Amino acid sequence: MNFRRLWSPQTSQKIMNVIFTLSGLFTLLILAIILGYILIRGLPAINFEFIFTNPIDSGKSGGILPMIISSLYVTAIAALIATPLGVGAAIYMTEFAENQKLIKFIRFGAETLASIPSIIFGLFGLAFFVVFLNLGWSILSGGLVLALMAFPTIFQVSEVTLSSIPSTYKEGSYGLGATKLQTIFSVVLPAAIPGIITGVILAITRAISEAAAVMYAVGSALSIPISLFDPGRPLPLHLYVLATEGVSLENAYGTAAVLVIIVLILTVGTNYIVERYQMKIMGI
């Protein structure tokens, strides 16, 4: 029997196509099972009162309005701090850094920072932001902790995106007499915006879903935070309290469903904006 004829390159390609297709379908199946289970259990608990009222009796009844506002606050702080720092560091690495040892050290630091468990970020936030800087348990402390978590993802994705911009873009800009800064801000960054936004969304959707990281920094207040120095209770932390302390599983599933819906809105909305931007650039 001629095994070479049976195991031809076309056969190998067909087998690998089947394997990759099944892998993709398996991923979609897992996502559908998780989202479906949470939404089926949580959507019946969601109504106007649940979304727009304060919790009653530690969350046994009432709504989750303070938790939604707390989540939006800490996530906005994280995005406003981590995005310019991450993108700025990526620009330095791709456009200005020349010392290869320094480049390797910075990349190693970013990879290490990205692999640190979220609970470690929470303990650092407690020791540094809450105690040492005397910010107390507050929205600001929680947002700073999430900014530290979001920074390495934004930095790594932005660096890869900026490195993939064709050199002809920059050469054409220099040929027209533009300076390096003008080229970066007028040519390189606009071309890299879709990839950078993808990195920001990856980091922010992770940050908005973290409970362990903010547990020791944001406090656990059930009231609506008025200022950045007020304590709060973001949705993931509220979900953790409801589920682990057996306060109300119905409200816990409702909170989980709201959190999933927020993440889906952020992801789908951002992907739509990125696609529209790419079509505008290509003149479609």
Could you explain how this protein is built, in words?
The chain has 284 residues and is mostly helical. The chain folds into two domains: 15-45; 48-276, MetI-like (MetI-like fold, Orthogonal Bundle). The protein has twelve helices and two strands. The protein has helices at residues 3-6, 9-42, 48-52, 65-96, 100-115, 118-132, 139-163, 167-175, 180-208, 212-215, 235-244, 249-281; strands at 55-56, 61-62. The protein starts with a helix and ends with a helix.
Largest sheet: 2 strands, antiparallel
Q: Which residues form runs of ≥5 with pLDDT under 50?
A: none
Query: How far do the termini sit from each other?
Result: 55 Å
Strand ordering within the main sheet: 1-2
Radius of gyration: 23 Å
Summarize the structure.
The protein is mainly alpha-helical and 284 residues long. The chain has helices at residues 3-6, 9-42, 48-52, 65-96, 100-115, 118-132, 139-163, 167-175, 180-208, 212-215, 235-244, 249-281; strands at residues 55-56, 61-62.
Write the layout of secondary structure elements.
Elements (H helix, E strand, L loop, with lengths): L2 H4 L2 H34 L5 H5 L2 E2 L4 E2 L2 H32 L3 H16 L2 H15 L6 H25 L3 H9 L4 H29 L3 H4 L19 H10 L4 H33 L3
Antiparallel strand pairs: 1-2
Helix pairs in contact: 2-12, 4-7, 4-9, 5-7, 6-7, 7-9, 8-9, 9-12, 11-12
